Amino acid sequence: MRRNAHFKIKKPHKMHYAPSKPLFSNKEIIFRSGARAKVFNISSKMQIFALIVVVLIGVWSAFSYHMYHKSDKLMTKLDRTRDAYADLMSDFVAVHKNINAMFTLLSEDNPEESPDLDRYKQQAQLMEDKIKQITDNEDWLKKEGMDKNVTIRDAVLERDRALSERALLLSKIKQLETSVQKLEISEMEILNKVEKISETEAQKIKDAISNINKSIKRQNKYYNPLAGGKKDGSGGTFEPAPEVDNEELSKKMQDVFLKIDDLSYYREVLKSVPLGEPIWNYHLSSPFGHRSDPFNKKSAAHKGVDLAANKGNIVKVMADGKVTRSEWMNGYGNLLEIDHENGFKTKYAHLNKLYVKKGQKVKQGEQIAEVGSTGRSTGPHLHYEVIFNGANVDPMAFMSALKK
């Protein structure tokens, strides 16, 4: 049996919404405790006031937080600035100490530059005074802290300065040593040349004296150039020679000075020894010693040499001395005699003219007369004699001594 099913569809119920209330409508707060209940009414005005209070508290808190962190940052920066300033002052004080020390050293080493150094020092002092005026107004810059910083930075600056100065000084010293070495090499070369020249000149004079002594010894005489006492006669103010660290150079200088002194002495001796030719352009017409007399052809002693030359030829004296004769003398004609005041005398005869007088002092190389043919003479010539300690010696040894 078939049944028809009937379905009844219900229509959905419509949703009913309560009307919205204002945000700050009256509110009730119920507090229950056991069987009791207590109700608090909060009006809309109270709610608005509470919200304003909360908002203000929040704003204040945020502002305080922001200001705290900003102040902290400012204080940190300020502290860093103070530290940097303190470090700068420490550096200045340390450098100023080093500058003062350097000024002192430079003033001692270079007294001629002291005025300039004093001026620089005064400028540095003025700068320090200005810095002090600033620091005196800052309470946070304490002397204890400064001293501590200065001690540390002084050591660092001293080390850095010492390293820098050491490197610079080493470089300068190296350059100076190179220059000194070159200079010492040049000085050594010059000293060697001077020594050689001095030795050669002194030896030439010694050889000349040795040669005349060969002639003098034939008369049982001997001339000692050191016997005059001139070598020991010296004096004058003391001027110390500059010290030289190079021992080799120092020794060479001493040796050269001795050689120069030796040469100077022998040159002084030579001024009083009649070495050299009293006339030029001559020929030996009659030697020293025994000869045949030109007038009677008999054997005769000849105390000097005859040097034939043109009339008027200039006669020169070969050593310093004093004129002891300037006169006419039989046989000699016009005669000059000069005492050289060291045992030596020289005579010049048959002269045409006499340029000097008795008692007059003459110098080596000075013109004293003219060649002539006065007295016992066969023609123009110079009769020349050399006498040592009263004995006549061969003049040719004296005339040729410096040529050998």
Characterization of the model:
This protein is an alpha+beta fold and 404 residues long. It folds into 3 domains: 90 residues; 91 residues; 121 residues, Distorted Sandwich (Glucose Permease (Domain IIA)), CATH 2.70.70. Helices cover 47% and strands 19% of the residues. It has 5 helices and 14 strands. Strands 3, 6, 7, 8, 9, 10, 11, 12, 13 and 14 form a 10-stranded antiparallel beta sheet that branches. Strand 9 and strand 10 form a beta hairpin. Helix 1 packs antiparallel against helix 2, helix 1 packs parallel to helix 3 and helix 3 runs parallel beside helix 4. It is rod-shaped and about 195 Å long. The relative contact order is 0.07.
Helix and strand sequence: EEHHHHEEEEEEEEEEEEH
The structural class is: alpha+beta
The CATH architecture designation of the largest domain is Distorted Sandwich
Rg from C-alpha positions?
Answer: 61 Å
Could you report the average pLDDT, rounded to the nearest whole number? 75
Indicate how many domains the architecture comprises: 3
* C-alpha end-to-end distance: 186 Å
What proportion of the residues is helical, as a percent range? 40-55%
Unreliable residue runs: 5-9
At the first level of CATH, the class of the largest domain is Mainly Beta
Instruction: Report the total helices.
Output: 5
The CATH topology annotation of the largest domain reads as Glucose Permease (Domain IIA)
